[in-house]
Design brief:
This protein has 861 residues and is of the alpha+beta class. Helix content is 25%, strand content 27%. It contains 20 helices and 41 strands. Strands 4, 5, 6, 12, 13, 14, 15, 16 and 17 form a 9-stranded mixed β-sheet that branches. Helix 2 crosses helix 5. The protein starts with a strand and ends with a helix. Bound molecules: flavin-adenine dinucleotide. Flavin-adenine dinucleotide (FAD) binds next to helix 1, strand 3, strand 12, strand 17 and helix 10.
Length: 861
C-alpha cells in the first residue's frame, strides 16, 4: 500500500467504486480506494439491482439518466459485464390523484429529455400479464428502467478505475482520520497510514462512523428492506417464449410494491409502512455478508394488496426472502459534497438507489473535487442541505417517515409531521392560538396561513386550489390595502465584520457594497459565473455588515464563505463571520399603513426622507433593541424588524396593539410568496439556482461588472457580451382550478424554430408494446394516436420550464415564473405560450413589468 495519495476513497461499494472511476477518468490517477473487507461488503451485494430515471427532483433525475447510460461505457472499458436488462417499466396509478402525480412526472420529463408515456392499464398488462389491470386507472411507461447484477456492476466500476491507474486496497479498515495543520489528512488504517490531500466518505452502512471520525454526525439511517424471489413460474416462461422478451418492471404505489422478472420467476419488493430501522445508533464493524432475518408479518399488508393486484404472483411458491439494510437521508436523496467546517473532506453517502444514482453521484463529486464545481445543479443531494437540527433522533424519525411514504403522493401543499415541532420561535404558541397552519422551514416552525376562527387549522392536501385559498386572499388584500405582520425568523442571517469585511464581500458579491446605513441586494456567483446566492446586505457600521438570505442555504453559504476567507497574508484574520441561526429572529410589517404603525412604536423620525427605501437603522421598537430594514418582500411599503428572541413577543405585542386602529392582520408565508409573485420577485432555489447565470436570472441591475474584480466576473462579463441564452420571465396563466407547482413545461407556438434549450430525448430506451403485443416505436403522436408527448406538437414546442408560481391574490390571476429562450423573453403577445398544468395546456402570457406597482412607487413611498 502506498503512503501518499491525492485522494483516498473509503469504501468499496458501488458508490465508492463509481467515485474512484470518475476521479480517475477526470485525470486524478494518484488515488486509492480502501475497503475494510471485499468489494460490495455493505448493502451493494444484496441489492435487487433495479434502476430507473424518475426522481422527484428533476436535477437528480438527470443524474440518474446519466448513470443508466454509463453502464455500457464501464462494461466496455472493464471487460466486466453488468448483466444489464433494459426492460423498461411502468408506474401504476390506482386513483385519479395518483394519475395527476404521473401526469406531473410525465410533464417534467419533457424538458429533461425523458421519453415517458402515459398509457392505459391494458397496455401495461400486455407487458406484465401477471397483473389484474382492473385495479388501476392508468400508468406511466418509462423505457429507461431495468435491472442489473449489483456485484458485477460494482466490479466493472472498480476494474475500469484500475485500468485508468487507480489503486484498490482490500481487507484494510480505516480506523482513524486526523488532519495536519497544513490540511493533509492522515488516513489511519489497519495496514498503516496514508497521507492524502482529500478524503471521500463512501462508507455506506458505516458512513456515520466515518463521519464521527472527523466530528460530524451525518443525517442518515439504515433501514431494513425486504424483497422476495419466487420459484420459476410457467406464466413467465410462457410469456418469454411467446413474445421473445422479458417482462417489464412494475411499480405499484398502492401496494408499496415494485416487481419484475428475475430469471424465470418474479422478484417483488416492498416499502412497507411498518418499516424498521437497522442499527439506529452504531453500525457493527463485524457486519458484512450476512442477511437479516426476514419478517413476513411486517410486509404482509403490502403483500396482500400486491397479490390482489398481481394475482399471477400469489400462486407462485416463494423461493427466498432477502432482508438487508441500506441507508437513507431524511428526504431519501444522497448526501454528496464537501462537509462545511472541514477542508477537503467529501461525502458520497446515503445513496439509497446506488444502481440508479451511483454514476451521477460519482460524476458530480469528481467534478466538484477536480474542477471545484459539480457542474450540475446538485442541491437536491448536497450534504449542506440539512442543518444542525438534523440530529440522530430527528434523522431517525424523518427517515422512517420518508421510507414509509416512499410510494405515497406528496402534495404541493403537504407538510410532513415527523420530528415536529423541532425549532420554535417565542411566538410559536401565540401563532397556534391565532389559528396558524404551521410549516417546516429548515427545521423551524413557521406560520403558513391563518385559518378562520372556529375552523381547524389544517391543509386539505391537493394538487388543486385548496382550503387555504380564501384565507390567503384575505391576508393579501388586508396587507396590500392596510397593513399586515408576519414572522420572518426563517431567513438566514449573518454578520460579517472586521477590517477586511468590505473587501471580502466585494470579492464575493456582484453588487457594490452599500454605504453605512444603506442596503443593497446582490447575487453571488461561483467561478463559472453561475448564481450561488442572493443576499440582502446592510452596512451596519464602518467594519460591520448584516446579511440576510435563504434559510435553507445556510450551510451551503457558510461553506462558500469559509472557503474564501483570506487565509494568509495581510488580509488574514481580518474578517469574522457569524451565523445567527435562531439567535436572531424577525417580524415584517407591510402595507400602506405600515409606516404609521411603526411610527407609533419608535421614537426616531421614520418619515420618507428620514428613513428612505433601502435604509438600515438600529432603533428601539416597542421598547426592544432592534435592527430595522426599510424593505419588504411583499413589494409594498414595509419594514423588516430584527431582534434577539427574548424581545420577539414584546415587539409582536406592541405591533398588534398599535396595529388595531389600522386594521392590522397576521399573514403567513404563503401570502408573502403570493405577493412576491405579482412583483416578479424571484426566490432562491426556485428561480435562482447554480444552473443559471445572473443575466439569465434577470438580475442585471445587481451586477456591477465595472466595480472591483469579483468571483465569476469574467464569466458574467462573457454572458453579458454574448447575451444570455435563457431568461427568467413571469407569466400570467389562464389557469382553471390549479396553479403551477414548479417544473411544468412551457410550450411556445414557434413553428419549426428550435431554440436549442430543451434537452432532447436520450433515446436509450427499451421498446414498448401495446395492448395487442405490437411494438410501439417513436411518439404516439407520430403514429396518429390522440395522446401528445415529446417536446414537439405541430407548431408548438417545449421551450422552457416553470420554476415556481401560484395564485397572485391581489391581482386575482394565476402567475408563473420560469425560463425561456432569451429571444422570446420580451414577447408579451397572447397566444404564444402555453403552460402544462396537470396534463392540460393553459394559455399563458409574459408580463415583463410586475403587475403590482410596476414603477415601485408604493415601496419607495
Ligand atoms: C434488500 C435491498 C435491495 C436493494 N435494491 C436496490 C435496487 O433495486 N436498486 C438500487 O439502486 N439500490 C438498491 N438497494 C440499495 C443499494 O444497495 C445501495 O444504494 C448501495 O448499495 C449503496 O452503496 P454504497 O457504496 O453507498 O454503500 P455500501 O454498499 O454499504 O458500501 C460501503 C462499503 O464501505 C466499506 N467501509 C465502510 N467503512 C469502512 C472503513 N472504515 N474502512 C474501509 N472500508 C469501509 C464497507 O465494507 C462497504 O463495502 C437495495 C438495498 C437492499 C438492502
Amino acid at each position: 500500500m502506498k503512503s501518499h495519495a491525492k485522494a483516498v476513497v473509503i469504501g468499496g461499494g458501488v458508490v465508492g467504486c463509481s467515485v474512484l472511476y470518475h476521479l480517475a477518468k477526470a485525470g486524478w490517477t494518484d488515488i486509492m480506494l480502501i475497503e475494510r473487507s471485499e468489494l460490495t461488503s455493505g448493502s451493494s451485494w444484496h441489492a435487487a439491482g433495479g434502476f430507473h430515471t424518475l426522481n422527484g427532483d428533476p436535477n437528480v433525475a438527470k443524474l440518474q439518466a446519466y448513470t443508466v447510460q454509463l453502464y455500457r461505457e464501464i462494461e466496455e472499458l472493464s471487460g466486466q459485464s453488468c448483466s444489464l436488462h433494459l426492460t423498461g417499466g411502468v408506474m401504476m396509478a390506482d386513483t385519479p390523484e395518483r394519475m395527476d402525480f404521473l401526469r406531473l412526472a410525465h410533464a417534467k420529463g419533457r424538458y429533461l429529455g425523458m421519453d415517458t408515456e402515459l398509457i392505459t392499464p391494458s397496455e401495461a398488462k400486455a407487458m406484465f400479464p401477471l397483473m389484474d389491470e382492473t385495479n388501476f386507472v392508468g400508468a406511466m411507461w418509462d423505457p429507461v428502467e431495468g435491472h442489473l447484477d449489483p456485484s458485477g456492476t460494482t466490479h466493472a466500476y472498480a476494474k475500469a478505475a484500475r485500468k485508468l491507474g487507480a489503486e484498490i486496497v482490500l481487507r484494510n479498515r480505516v480506523v482513524e482520520l486526523t488532519q495536519e495543520v497544513d490540511g493533509t489528512w492522515n488516513v489511519v488504517t489497519e495496514q498503516g497510514t496514508v497521507k492524502a490531500e482529500h478524503v471521500v466518505n463512501c462508507g455506506g452502512l458505516w458512513a456515520r462512523e466515518i463521519g464521527r471520525m472527523v466530528g460530524v454526525e451525518l443525517p442518515l439511517l439504515a433501514m431494513e428492506h425486504m424483497y422476495l424471489l419466487t420459484e420459476p413460474m410457467p406464466e413467465v416462461e410462457e410469456f418469454n417464449k411467446s413474445t421473445g422478451r422479458e417482462m417489464i418492471g412494475v411499480m405499484d404505489f398502492k401496494g408499496e410494491i415494485y416487481t419484475r422478472q428475475e430469471r424465470n420467476g418474479i422478484l417483488l419488493g416492498t416499502y412497507e409502512k411498518a418499516c424498521k430501522p437497522w442499527s439506529p445508533v452504531n453500525t457493527p464493524w463485524d457486519f458484512g455478508h450476512e442477511l437479516l432475518q426476514p419478517d413476513i408479518d411486517r410486509i404482509a399488508p403490502s403483500l396482500e394488496i400486491g397479490f390482489k393486484h398481481f394475482p399471477g404472483i400469489e400462486k407462485a411458491g416463494i423461493k427466498q426472502i432477502i432482508n438487508g439494510p441500506f441507508t437513507f437521508a431524511l428526504d431519501g436523496n444522497p448526501l454528496v459534497g464537501p462537509v462545511q467546517g472541514l477542508t477537503n473532506f467529501w461525502c458520497a453517502c446515503a445513496v439509497m438507489a446506488g444502481f440508479s444514482q451511483g454514476g451521477g453521484v460519482g460524476l458530480a463529486l469528481s467534478n466538484w473535487m477536480v474542477h471545484g464545481d459539480p457542474s450540475f445543479d446538485v442541491w437536491g443531494m448536497d450534504v449542506a442541505r440539512f442543518g444542525e437540527w438534523a440530529t440522530l433522533r430527528y434523522t431517525n424519525a424523518k427517515v422512517r417517515e420518508n421510507y414509509s411514504r416512499r410510494f405515497s403522493i406528496r402534495f404541493p401543499n403537504e407538510e410532513l409531521p415527523a420530528a415536529r415541532p423541532a425549532q420554535t420561535t417565542p411566538l410559536y404558541d401565540t401563532m397556534l392560538a391565532n389559528n396558524a397552519v404551521m410549516g417546516d422551514s429548515w427545521g423551524l416552525e413557521t406560520p403558513l396561513w391563518f385559518a378562520p376562527k372556529g375552523t381547524e387549522p389544517k391543509d386539505i392536501v391537493s394538487f388543486h386550489r385548496s382550503n387555504d385559498f380564501g384565507p390567503i386572499g384575505e391576508e393579501v388584500r388586508a396587507t396590500r390595502e392596510k397593513v399586515g405582520v408576519t414572522e420572518i425568523a426563517n431567513f438566514a442571517k449573518y454578520e460579517v465584520s472586521g477590517p477586511g469585511s468590505e473587501d471580502f464581500l466585494n470579492r464575493l458579491m456582484t453588487n457594490r457594497m452599500p454605504k453605512t446605513s444603506r442596503i443593497v441586494l446582490t447575487p453571488m456567483l461561483n467561478d463559472f459565473g453561475r448564481l450561488i446566492g442572493d443576499f440582502t446586505i446592510a452596512k451596519a457600521g464602518e467594519e460591520r455588515f448584516m446579511i440576510w438570505s435563504s434559510s435553507a442555504a445556510q450551510k451551503y453559504h457558510m461553506r462558500w464563505f469559509e472557503k474564501h476567507l483570506p487565509k494568509d497574508g495581510p488580509g488574514a484574520s481580518q474578517v469574522r463571520i457569524h451565523r445567527f441561526d435562531q439567535t436572531l429572529v424577525g417580524l415584517s410589517i407591510a402595507g400602506p399603513k405600515s409606516r404609521d404603525l411603526l411610527q407609533k412604536l419608535v421614537d426616531a423620525d421614520i418619515s420618507t426622507k428620514a428613513f428612505r427605501f433601502m435604509d438600515f437603522r438600529e432603533m428601539a421598537v416597542g421598547g426592544a433593541p432592534c435592527m430595522v430594514n426599510r424593505i419588504t418582500y411583499t413589494g409594498d411599503l414595509g419594514y423588516e424588524i430584527w431582534m434577539a428572541p427574548a424581545y420577539q413577543r414584546l415587539v409582536y405585542k406592541a405591533i398588534k396593539d398599535a396595529g388595531e386602529e389600522f386594521g392590522l392582520v397576521d399573514f403567513g408565508m404563503r401570502a408573502l410568496l403570493s405577493m412576491r409573485l405579482e412583483k416578479n420577485f424571484p426566490t432562491w432555489f426556485r428561480e435562482l439556482r447554480p444552473i443559471y447565470g445572473p443575466f439569465e436570472g434577470a438580475m442585471d441591475r445587481f451586477v456591477k461588472l465595472e466595480k472591483n474584480d469579483f468571483i465569476g466576473r469574467d464569466a458574467a462579463a462573457r454572458e453579458q457580451a454574448e447575451g444570455p441564452k435563457l431568461r427568467r420571465v413571469s407569466f400570467i396563466v389562464d389557469a382553471a382550478d390549479a396553479d403551477v407547482m414548479g417544473d411544468e413545461p412551457i410550450w411556445a407556438k414557434v413553428g419549426g424554430k428550435d431554440y436549442g434549450t430543451v434537452e432532447k430525448p436520450h433515446g436509450y430506451g427499451a421498446p414498448r408494446f401495446d395492448a395487442d403485443g405490437k411494438e410501439v416505436r417513436g411518439s404516439r403522436a407520430a403514429e396518429g394516436a390522440s395522446a401528445v408527448r415529446g417536446i414537439v406538437d405541430g407548431d408548438w414546442r417545449v421551450v422552457g420550464w416553470v420554476t415556481s408560481g401560484g395564485y397572485a391574490h391581489y391581482i386575482q390571476k394565476s402567475m408563473a415564473q420560469g425560463y425561456v429562450p432569451a429571444a422570446l423573453a420580451a414577447d408579451e403577445s397572447a397566444g404564444l405560450f402555453e403552460i402544462e398544468i396537470l396534463g392540460s395546456r393553459r394559455p399563458a402570457r409574459i408580463n415583463v413589468e410586475p403587475p403590482f406597482d410596476p414603477s415601485g412607487e408604493k415601496m419607495r413611498a
